[in-house]
Specification:
alpha+beta; 2 domains; two-stranded antiparallel ribbon; globular
Amino acid sequence: MGLFKKKEADATPGAPSVDPAFAQHQATLASVGLPTQDGALAPSLTAHSGFVKRATCTQCGAPKRLPSTTAYLYCDYCGALVDYDFRLANAGTNAGITNTVFHRLMAPLQGALNNARATGDRDTYRNLQLHIFRSWLNECPQAVSPRARTDPEFRERMAVYCAECAVTKDLDPRQQPLELQVNAIIASFQRVPQPGGAWLVAGDFWTMAQLWKQQMDLAYDEIERLGVADLDPDEPPSGVARKMEYSTFCQTWLPHLSPDHGAHLLSMYGLTGEYSAVEPVATHGSRCGGCGADVHTVEGARRVVCESCGQRLDVATGAVPCQHCGSPLSFPEGLSHLACPHCRATTHRV
């Protein structure tokens, strides 16, 4: 989700004609899976419906085969969270809306946060962060896993996890000197205008990128060491949360780097070559027994996550026709009967 860096949406560049060097920039970015738009570099990394994020589930070992409609990639076979798609995370206006809300909620508490951090008051800092994240997730459940949209308990657990991550990082004395260096370097950057309204960053970018990576590695090493990672209600495999953080950082800066530098950044953060074209896959169609959305599952799937409401569905035994309207329903885990989301008739699973 990018716990430690929120990104404001960029303005959309508009000029369709570009010079040869800029066209080469687009081609290079496209070759590593990054989109362009109307003859100019896309302002943020957007979704390609024809591509799927390469990922292998560490729970069951299955590869990701179906494209996701959300940034949170769940295993097509067992429903475990396996990865994060930074292009989908910033598609459309979602990133701008959720980040604007987050900063609005944080602004009036920034002084109190700074004071608690300066004095090492972990309890006050935790309570402030918890208030911010609770409010943010209630207003913007779409900012995290689709499970947050319909599950208040999940949202609360996510708020607790996010707040504890912030405490772990921000009150680590090793972080402040790194943060000061990163912020000073970013403040010294200059924007070099490019055709189409885009801009390239000029300055000591690589020192900043390395220092920021050091910050994140320190943070997530500590989050894992202290057991804070166990609070994540999505129960991701080890390393997924850290990779999500890397993805957010790369998404922020890739549109503002040259082709060679963009490829180098992806390599530095281990994100090179992570997208491939979707190959035709035979699927079974059903409807989510929780919200009624269409669900497509691959042969051999046992549990999947509905990308509309986030409920985990037991698909191992196949869909159950509604006893009134006939809709093929996949039941949420643990339920033996439900009210059909289409006609509200009670349907039982034998």
